[in-house]
Amino acid sequence: MCHQTVRLVAEGLERASIPTVVVGTMRAPLKGLPRIVISRYDRGRNFGAANDPTEHRALAREALSLFTATEPTLIDHKERAAAP
Amino acid sequence: MSLDSNPLRTVWAAWLPRALPLLEAEQYAEALVGFPKPDHPPLPFLTAPPPTERRIAFITSAGAYDTATQTTFLARSAVGDVSHRIFPTMLADERIGFSHGHYDEEHVLADREVLLPRRALALEGANLTDNIVSTMGYAIDWPTLIESTIPRVIQQVKNDGANCALLVPV
Distance (Å, rounded) from C-alpha B34 to C-alpha B108? Predict the structure, then answer.
């Protein structure tokens, strides 16, 4: 439900001409948004484990990089982790 | 004079009586069968401003609030909470509380950066606006969310001078 309600907010912002980046932990509820990072971590710690500033910065950097995207972009770390 | 109708609210109101006992029993999967949702028409792709011109609004559904000046969200409500909170981006960690109830708050209470990575974003050069906007993502009353809360969130973001936004759902 939380990802779905944030999707509604993101859609509203996009329609108000405010580009968005979403850093979530579940992919399906965010489908259709233009810039998405799916964290490898569980919900409640989207940017990594507590007291891991290096990882927090890495995910922050990745999220900010999506603002330069010129087409819809999805980075799915869960999918990458599951890949053989 | 007749009042405006809201087709989504009409359908939602018809769905709610069957769902409410299941929501109260925390049987969410069964309760949300037939949950009415709006259409999601495709979004036109927007180009974000260049880095030096970005003013980024930070929005989360973590149920964050200022413990000194604001009330908690209704974390134990069966229908959730459609309200939102606005607090200074640089509010001290110990002033930021979380009332959500649908995720493990242990991590964010140990380190706010896991959901509100203010220091990490600043170190990466992000220029955040002056306020964070938080909702409590568990909100069943979508008609009110869509008609009232989201327009107010968007207006807050505009008032803060944002030209792009980073959203963190929980």
Answer: 33
Among chain A residues, CA nearest to B127: A64
Residue B111, Cβ density class (10 Å: 0-12 exposed, 13-18 middle, ≥19 buried)? buried
Cα(B40)–Cα(B80) distance, integer angstroms: 22
Of B133, B152, B145, B123, residue with least CA distance to B61: B133
Are β-strands B164-168 and B56-60 bridged in parallel, bridged antiparallel, or unpaired?
Answer: parallel
pTM greater than 0.90: yes
| Pick from B45, B125, B154: CB nearest A72 | B45
Residues A2-59 have pLDDT tens digits of 899 999 999 999 999 999 999 999 999 999 999 999 999 999 999 999 999 999 999 9
Which residue type sits at B30? E
CA nearest B128 in A: which residue? A64
Integer CA distances (angstroms), B162 to A14, A70, B60, B121, B155, in order: 12, 20, 15, 15, 10
CB contact under 8 A, B102 and A1: yes
Cα–Cα dist B161/B57, whole Å: 8
**Nearest alpha carbon to residue B20 among B79, B91, B75, B70:** B79
For B170, how many CA atoms within 13 A lie in the half-sphere containing its CB? 28
